[in-house]
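Weekly modeling sync, notes
Attendees: AB, CL, MP (scribe)

Item 1: holo prediction request
CL wants a bound-state model with adenosine-5'-diphosphate before deciding which constructs to order. AB pointed out that an apo prediction alone won't tell us much about the pocket. Agreed to run with the ligand included and paste results into these notes for async review.

Input as submitted:
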Amino acid sequence: MSGPLLRLTRIAQEYGTGETAVRALDGIDLEVAAGELVAVMGASGSGKSSLLSIAGGLAAPTSGTVEVEGVDLAGLSPKRIAALRRTTLGFVFQDYNLVPTLTALENVGLPLELDGWPRAKVRGAALEALAGVELGEQADRFPDDLSGGQQQRIAIARAVVGPRRLILADEPTGALDSQTGEVVLRMLRTRIDHGAGGVLVTHDARHAAWADRIVFLRDGRVADQTAASRPESLLEDVS
Ligand code: ADP
Ligand code: MG
């Protein structure tokens, strides 16, 4: 495939109408290529979450186009968009509603099972995703037997299980302790280096440093863009 994985063109998003209308996004252009992680930073209310929801087809923009792998989401039925969300996109949010009666492995494999994957393939992919967040050893344990941080990592593994090509993460490390946060960022970076594309909303400049590029939002517009310094170079600086 040529062209970017994600292309947003002149995206505007308005909530409400008339006097109380809020223009959350105002003319955003953004492209994310395979192998590229883009960090989005900006003050609370600057439009970061709105942007991510639109990029992943969770919300339709007021105007502008969203293309995922060259396909305009506006032309897809709700059913096709739902399928895209199950297979192509990985959403990492802060909620972690695990099913208490399922093991870590079963929780992580659930989206693939619902998508009709054969059992052995589900198991393999779920194990791989769990290993990615360094919980391969805990596969057969139940959520209640694991710490809060481990439960969050399971939810994150579930969000990215299988061959997702575009990973969208909205402050995924917000509620994680710093060590767990780093595990998650390392997993994300590995997925990107293996050919996925990603958008990472974060408040933390150290986390944004894992990205290839940082986009700063202000009042729903791109205020600035910069190349990020990769962790490798940060490590070199320390040594
Ligand atoms: P961020 O994630 O950067 O904090 P958001 O995208 O959540 O920003 O919000 C951008 C603006 O849009 C804010 O002014 C917010 O209050 C408003 N907003 C977001 N979602 C809604 C909604 N569902 N209804 C009305 N206003 C909203
Ligand atoms: Mg937000």
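Recorded for review: Strands lie at 6-15, 22-32, 37-41, 63-68, 71-72, 89-92, 166-170, 197-201, 213-218, 221-227.
Action items: CL to compare against the apo run; MP to circulate these notes.
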